[in-house]
Please model this.
Amino acid sequence: MVTDPYATLGVGREATPDEIKSAYRKLARRYHPDVNPDNPEAEEKFKEIGQAYSILGDEEKKARYDQYGVTDDQPGAGGPGGEYFGAGTNINDLFEQFFGGFGGTGFGGGRGTGRDGDDVRADTTVTLHEVLTGTQRTIKYRRMAVCDHCQGEGAEPGTPVETCGTCNGRGAVMRVANTILGQVQTQTTCPTCRGVGKTIQTPCKECSGRKVKVQDAEVDITVPPGVDDGITLRVAGRGNDGVDGGTPGDLYVVISVQETPGTWRDNLDLHRVVEISYIQAVLGDKISVDALDGKIELKLDAGTQPEATSRVRGRGLPRLRGTGRGDFVVHWRLVVPKKVNEEQVAALKAFAEASGEKMPEAEDGGLLGGLFGKKKRKK
Ligand SMILES: [Zn+2]
Ligand SMILES: [Zn+2]
Model:
């Protein structure tokens, strides 16, 4: 039983999830039963490592351990023993998450782990309307894919492939390491053939023996409603191909939402600026505004003030993988005319008189000055 998972993994309490994962990977590789056949001590150690990681690799269980110092699978904690690793197969499940499931056949068969493919990033842009409805996209991108000329063997077809002299085709070599536990004999991947057990005389002409080459790829994805700028969608196994039996990486599609001038989002609410005239603001009006899903008829009250807003419930953006929609918020922007003609000035004069307001006197530069002032006449 693991009493201190931090000590088991050899990490400090402040270790980040990545550090914990990395420590687990290293130890799991070292003590994996396939690397240490018929070694009960290594097997026990491997189980402990798996238990420790099942706690520290799980946010909830880690928090519980940090707070109470116990976990469900420890005696006295009240839980049934071996919740996480009772059957032993769970360790392999965990292990396979990392190494692509070679457990049993990979190391045991004398072959290496291969090299996993890297993740690949692609980008796509959606409109605000597509944020509302969701959409389909065909993503075109480039990835390292298994070379079709050599079928991923790395050798030019028809040329000899020889058994590796370093490992005699086993793909692995034994190594004695000094560890805190004393001398430990471990089996590691052969450095000459990288675990393949074979050496190539004439590398494939198309991929130079790398076994993969850059190729165009296409994948159809579904963009769910409610995505926001920077949301990433993962397409498992569509990244770079692995070599020598390694697993392919994943494709990450980063979503950008097209910007619309005068429109912005605040969480689920969609905001839009709509311009109105002085007359509309004073007298009120019926105004048709383009929303995401068709037009909305809005009543502008008489006497609407500059920067006033109107909120339409439920006509904003949908929640990602949820229900309900935000609001559509219209920001009324009062637009003052930059030019008026003499007729309009006369009308404004009449308006000023009717309001008991004095007509402003502009000496120069002002609108009245520009129309009737000396500067205008000089030209
Ligand atoms: Zn090739
Ligand atoms: Zn070798």
